[in-house]
């Protein structure tokens, strides 16, 4: 939770993310990106080196973006990060200005005692196996941003993971890193986790 995060004096010397999925087009500057499983996909150094893109729904941030990038990162905050472990490798960035609702949907941070809904939602812009591989779209990412509903399955306490079951769509590589959230009757969106693809060894109906 945000209240339990510890400050890093505005700098993360080296953040190595080892993930089974592609990292989305969020930062530029000191960022190396890969589309292949198991590779280190990000090295970040200073908040001033990051550019944030708002409204991206395609792989290439220079094509079809809803807004221009802006230098807007005040601080980077990490929680329980360990260079020797592939878990807890997330960092929060604090923006220096608000983002308009025309370019994004406001989302609330969860409370410690938040009760999870029976239906959760995940947002991602990963690959679509139904799309043809082309020179312009070799990784089948042309579908753009999508939001899919997921049925809450269980909480895995040991690894601090929320498991969900899919309805009709399965998360694919490239969808990881997006928000896992719930929506109440007042249309308030609350972040409950970070989405990631399911493990191939799990049952086929378990998604995030």
Automatic annotation (TrEMBL):
Question: Which portions of this protein are annotated as coiled-coil regions?
Answer: none
Against Pfam families, the record matches this protein to:
Trypsin
Q: Where is the Peptidase S1 domain?
A: 43-198
What are the GO BP annotations of this UniProt entry?
A: proteolysis
Q: Name one GO molecular function term.
A: serine-type endopeptidase activity
Could you list the residue ranges that cross the membrane?
none
What protein name does the entry list? Answer: Peptidase S1 domain-containing protein
In which organism is this protein found? Ancylostoma ceylanicum
Recall the taxonomic lineage recorded for the source organism.
Eukaryota, Metazoa, Ecdysozoa, Nematoda, Chromadorea
């Amino acid at each position: 939770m945000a209240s339990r995060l510890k400050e890093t004096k505005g700098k993360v010397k080296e953040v190595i993310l080892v993930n089974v999925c592609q990292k989305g087009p969020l930062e530029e500057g000191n960022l190396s990106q890969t589309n292949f499983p198991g590779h280190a996909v990000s090295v970040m150094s200073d908040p001033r080196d990051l550019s944030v893109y708002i409204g991206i729904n395609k792989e290439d941030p220079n094509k079809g973006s809803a807004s221009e990038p802006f230098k807007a990162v005040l601080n980077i905050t990490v929680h329980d990060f360990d260079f020797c472990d592939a878990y807890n490798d997330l960092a929060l960035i604090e923006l220096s200005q608000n983002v308009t609702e025309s370019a994004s949907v406001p989302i609330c941070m969860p409370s410690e005692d938040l009760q999870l809904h029976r239906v959760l939602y995940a947002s991602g812009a990963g690959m679509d196996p139904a799309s043809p591989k082309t020179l312009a779209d070799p990784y089948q990412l042309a579908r753009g941003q999508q939001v899919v509903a997921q049925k809450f399955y269980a909480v895995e306490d040991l690894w601090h993971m929320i498991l969900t079951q899919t309805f009709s769509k399965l998360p694919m590589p490239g969808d990881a890193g997006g928000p896992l959230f719930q929506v109440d009757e007042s249309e308030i969106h609350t972040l409950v986790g970070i989405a990631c693809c399911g493990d191939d060894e799990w049952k086929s109906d378990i998604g995030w």
